[in-house]
Write a structure and sequence with these properties.
Keywords: DNA-binding, Elongation factor, Protein biosynthesis, Transcription, Transcription regulation. By secondary structure, the protein is α/β, with parallel strands linked by helices. The protein is built from three helices and nine strands, in the order E-E-E-H-H-E-E-E-E-H-E-E. Strand 5 and strand 6 form a beta hairpin. Helix 1 packs antiparallel against helix 2.
């Protein structure tokens, strides 16, 4: 488990099968496609002569360092993650991987999927399991009220929908 900043509480290192696949695909692309392309470009730039004033060479070397840093990060991160690839026994409660629809006091609805920190994307409705809202939703049932502290103050919402995909890795 990782430590939460400031409060020492452990944070889960969960990821959905889709999220793991995306990280593995990125790692594969960087290692098998992007790095060889950049390595070739650096090799060609180096052949042009003076490397100290060769912008293509300098930029290519910088790109290689960034690619290598990301490859190391992804390799280590994938070893640390736990893929959640089965549905919970009680699907009437909110757990990791659930699509949760909440309604605020004004009747506005939002739907989120609780996912790992490595795959959150609010544009898709993917909410990190480590976020205050997701932590407040875990274990709740339909019609439960959830209060969560936001930068604007306390916000209350009601759980109006909970659903799980048949298999968490399927769309």
């Amino acid at each position: 488990m990782t430590e939460a900043p400031g409060n020492g509480a452990p944070r889960p290192r969960y990821i959905t099968p889709d999220g793991e696949r995306a990280l593995r695909d990125e790692l594969q692309y960087l290692w098998k496609v992007k790095r060889p392309e950049v390595t070739q470009a650096v090799r060609e730039a180096a052949a042009l002569g003076d490397r100290s004033e060769n912008a293509e060479y300098i930029y290519g070397k910088k790109q290689l360092r960034e690619i290598d840093r990301r490859v190391r990060f992804l390799g280590k991160r994938l070893e640390e993650l736990t893929v959640v690839d089965r549905l919970p026994d009680d699907r009437n409660k909110v757990f990791f991987g659930a699509w949760v629809t909440v309604e605020d006091e004004d009747g506005d609805e939002q739907t989120y999927r609780l996912v790992g920190a490595d795959e959150f994307d609010l544009d898709k409705g993917y909410l990190s399991i480590n976020s205050p809202m997701a932590r407040a939703l875990i274990g709740k049932r339909l019609d439960d009220e959830v209060s969560v502290r936001t930068p604007e103050g306390w916000k209350s919402v009601f759980v109006v929908g909970i659903r799980y995909q048949e298999l968490l890795g399927d769309k």
